[in-house]
Every structure is written in structure tokens, then in C-alpha cells.
User: Fold these one by one.
Assistant:
Number 1:
Amino acid sequence: MENNQQSEYNIIQTVPFFWVKDMEASLKFYIEALGFTLVNQWTPRGKIEWCWLTRDAIAIMLQELRKKDQSTGEPERPGKGISICYQCRDALALYHEFTGKGIQIQEPFVGNNNWVVAFDDVDGYRLDFESPTDVPEETKYSEWFK
């Protein structure tokens, strides 16, 4: 979509908002391991409690659960059951980048005509990085890369 077309729309971006148990651990994961950049933060008590991160053309927001929020029955792992799918040019390049930084990732596979690189973040949110391919459906990376 060209910039002049964007001005025609009222809603221009969706940004996933993740509740996290430990902001420091989440920031380390997203910045150091996944290569995101911190672009905005809220520090009402001298530490980051909310932030906006970007990488390439995407953004996410993180906010740390406060003790009072956790006592209301919030799940042990806030992201359980939630998946975020990132559409990429080359998901396999990200697989090599992320595993090179020590992230444990299940073997990439082809699903719905996409290479799928999937893993959970530190709070249990499932992150799927996907890129289009013409490799046959259900092919595993080890079967294709020989």
C-alpha cells in the first residue's frame, strides 16, 4: 500500500499488546535475541512498565503485570493460547538468526504454502514467522535442506 493510499484509511496499524510477567526478561528476549528496538517507554516508578518495540515494519507493546493484576486470576503464563503470525520475506533467514542467538525453535516446516518458524516467547506467546514458498506442504526443513 502506498503512503498516499494510507491517508484514505482511518485504521492504519494493528499492534499486538502483550502482558508480561518480567519486563526485564521480555526486553532481553525481544531486543537481544529477536533484534527489536525500544522506541517508547513508560517508567512511572523508575523502571519500564510499558514499552513500544519495533523491528522492520512491525511493532509490539509490552506491559508488565502488577502484583494486583496477578492476584485476580491472571494465568501463570499470560500468553498461553495466543499466537501472533508475522508475515516475512524470508522466515528461514530468521530461523538461522534466532537459533544463532540460542533460541530453541522447533524445526521449520511448510504449512499453508508458507515456511513456518514457530516458538514461544518467555511468557508463552506463540510467535510464528512465515514466508511464502512453493515447497510441498508439510515438508520439514531437514527434508528440504540436504
Number 2:
Amino acid sequence: MSEGGEVAEGVGTLQGDSVTGVSGPGGPGGAAGPESMDGREELPRSAVLPRHRSPAPNPLAGLVRTVAELGAMVATALESLRLGLRHGVPVGELIDQCWFLVRVTTLPLILVSIPFGMVIALEVGSLLQQIGAQSQLGAAMVLAVVREQAPVATALLIAGAGGSAMCADLGSRRIRDEISAMEVMGVQPLQRLVLPRLLAATIVAVLLDSVVSVAGIAGGLYFGTHSLHISASAFFATFGELSQLADVWVALFKAGVFGFIAAMVACYKGMSCKGGPKGVGDAVNQAVVATFILAFFVNFVLTIVYFKFVPQKGL
């Protein structure tokens, strides 16, 4: 065979699935049949290729990702505070964010706190009435509303109304490349955008805690005087029997921590979102859910620490 024929035969041998340029069972230039050129039967390609199995899910992978993301949130917040100490706080943006949070959360908080206080008065008052101690409703209301209900309700409303708006605003800036443009121009986005929101959420949460406490106690007073038929003087006379000034301070501290957490999660999710408008919506949803989980967990830890180190007042 000539040199050209040897090259053609070699090419035909190397091509496994379709042999071109060599006569076979399918005719000249056609595809090879089920048998190879040497007479042996060829196996299907699916039987030759190995099957790739998906790796078994690692139960610790999700926990590691969650801890890493939480660390990134805390690092972002601390970096914002560091830049604020170094370059100052944008006062105008801080005032705008404070006013925005007050405007969108005050009325919903009051509307939530009044029926919540009435429910507490109903549950606790029914029990106290059975033992003939309905006059102690005021003391129970102070512990339930001031210490627990007010900080948690403030955190939920700030996360749901204010935090979602923060996340959507920063996420929209991210997908429009506004934040990237600020970085190119030498402007610190953490100091200009994140820091005012962190401080505003913390300040407004502390201020709104008092409003929630007053509204909740007012709801309990109304229910106690109209359903349990106790006098307003008896309701207020028992305020100091179980509560103390430390309860007020720990409630304000909890509210400030919850507000900071809500802004921290919202700003981080907004600054790191991707995927267009759908990504912004997903980031808002994740921010609200993560804030609720963190708020309840931190509330549990702070309550344990409070009961461990602060002596409680008894009858």
C-alpha cells in the first residue's frame, strides 16, 4: 500500500465511533456498524464511560458556611465602625436613616404592643384571679412587657420594616454598580452607607423600646380595669414589687443590640447580593429570616447572663 493509503488507514483506525474514508458495512464513508473493523463487537459508549456519583452531603458543611457568613457580617460591621472612628460619621445620612426608621416603625409597633399587652394581661390575670392575687397584675405586666416583649417586638419591626428597606436599597445600589463606582472614586461605601444605618437602627431601637413598653402596659391596664375589675391605683401600686431598675437597663441594652443586629444583617446581605432584581429579593428575604433567628438566640443568651449575674427581686 502506498504512503497515502497507510495514512488513510491509520486515520480510519483512530476514529472509534464513525470511520470516515474507509469502506465498512455501512458503505464507503458511512458509519461503522455494531461490529468493529476487526470483527469484534463494540460495547455502547454508556457502558464504557464510568458513572460519576454525586458526593454524599456533608452535615457540617452547612454549619461551616453559616458560621463563616456570620463572621463576615460581624467583620463588616466592625470595619464600618473603625472607618467611622477614623473618618467621621456622615451626620446627614444618619439623621435621614433615623427619621426613616421612626416613620416606618413607630405606628406599627404601637399597634402590635397594645394587643400584645392585653393578651399578657388575659393570660396572667386569669391565673392570678384563680389564686386571688389579681392585684399583682401590674407587677407581672412590668416583667413581661418591659423585660421581654418590648425589646423583641422592637427588633422584629425594625428588621421587618426598616431592615428590609435597608437591604433593598443597598442591593439595588450593588446591582446598578453604584457601590463599585464609589470604590473607584475612592469613597468608602462602608463608612458612607453602612455605618449610618448601623447607628440609626441602634439609636432608634433604644428610643422605641420605651414607646413599646408604655403601649404594652397601657393595653394591660385597660384589660385589667375592664375585665378583671381591678383599680388603676392597685395596678400601678405593684409596679415595684417584682421589678427593679436593672430590668429597664437590660431591656434598653437588648433593644440596642437587636437593632444593631438587624442593620448588620440587612447591610451585609444588601452589599453582597448578586443576580439582578431577583437576587435583591432573595437577599431581603434572607436578611429578615436571619435577623429573627439571631435576635431570638441573642435574647436567650442575654437573658441567661442577666439572671446569672443580677440578683432578682422577690416578694
Number 3:
Amino acid sequence: MHPVLFKIGPITLHTYGMMLAAAVLLGLWLARRNAYEDGLDGDRVWNLGVYAVLSGLVVAKVWLVLAMWDYFVANPREIFALSTLQSGGTFYGGVLGALVLVIFYARFAKLPFLPLADAYAPCAALGAMLGRIGCFSAGCCYGKPTEVAWGITFTSEYASNLVGTPLHVRLHPTQLYDSFAAAGILVVLLLMRRRKRFPGQLWAMFMMLYGLMRFTTEFFRGDPGRTELFGGALSLMQVVSVALMVSGVWLWRRGAAQPVAQVPPTAAKRRAH
């Protein structure tokens, strides 16, 4: 579509990079606002979010290399190629990297993990929504060939050279499938915030809904690195999606079985205003 917004001399601004930056900044702003409403230190949540983003980017790229190991072993220089460095990596790798850092930081700083996870849950949905629009613009994470009326055709030679996008072939717009679904998840999470009954409820809902979304859209993905399992019946990402859904269900049932959590005084005061 439009992999490059503009180019001035040696400086090239890619659409994907701009959308990723927008997702990070808006996500951090949303997390900080959510933190204040839940009685957490908003500045601390912002700083932790920055560290989590950096950790997520690193793990996302490592996951990408592992998922396409045969290719990178045959082409080791591509690990540090511009196209690899500019890519966002895998979304699940990013979530895992950020989650691990938040868990360790929360334990080290003696912060409550589940309220932190709830503060970041809408940010993860927002990041997926904007990130997939970036993918659509760049031509990566493309779908399988299709004849459906809403199929899309890429024509950018730049995108083809950068990420291997098939040109002049009608494909499933899997990037938009994910983006629209993530937008729906974001709306659900924002509506749930005022009715939250236990810590971790928003994060549990995110895991269930995003896992279901990704499990479904994986059937329509056509880009390499799918890591097929069980004779090609499922991909590694679908197995991870099932694990994510199961974890979400477990966390929801665990929280629902506990007494209703009291709203922190700071949060209650802010909501009253």
C-alpha cells in the first residue's frame, strides 16, 4: 500500500515505524491514565511501560529469527539486515518480552502485578490495532490468495523487496482482520473498566479475546515463518493462542471465585470527579 510516508535525502520515514511509534506513545498515555484511576503511580507505570516496550521489541525480533531459523541460518547476514531491524518482529514475542519484564519489575519493586496488567491490557489491544495498520501499509503479515470480494492486491515493488510481499495477487487482508478485531477488543476492555470486579479481569479478557482472534486469523495468513505443526493442521502461533485463551479462562475463574475487590480510595475519588 504505502510502505514509505516520505523520503528526504538519506532519511526515510516508513509507515510501519510511524504507526509503531504512535502505538507506543498512545499506549503509554492510556496506561498512565488507567493507573491513576486504579490508585497506582502513573509516572511509575509510564516508566515501566517504556522498559516493557524495549524488552518487547528485543524479544519480538528474537522470536522472529527463531520462527524463520532455517532462512536465517542460510542467510546469517539477514539477521542484522535493515529489513529485519526495521521489522516489529512477532506480536506474541513482544507481549511475552513485555510481560516477563513487568512480572520481574513488579516483584522487585513490590508492586501489585494484576492491577498493573489491567492498566496495560487496553494498551496491548491499542498496539495491536495500530501495529496491524502499519503491517498493512508495509505489506507484511499478508494473507493467503483468495477470490473474496474484499481481497486486496499489493503493487509496491519496495514492499516486495523489503518483506517479500506477493504482488498483483488478490490476498486476504489479514492485517485488517486483526486490526478491526483488536479495535473491538479495545472497546470491550474500556467498557469493562468501570465494572471491573477483581484484579486481573481486564488482562484475562484480553488473553481470551486476543487468543481467539489470532487463532482464527492464522488460518488466513500466507506469509512465511508460520512454523506449521501436526502435519500443517495448526501453526505455532495457534498453539500459543490456545495457551493464551486457557490462561485467560483460568485467571478469570480464579478472580471470580474471590471476594469482590474494593475500589482503591484514590481511584474512587478520581471516578467521583
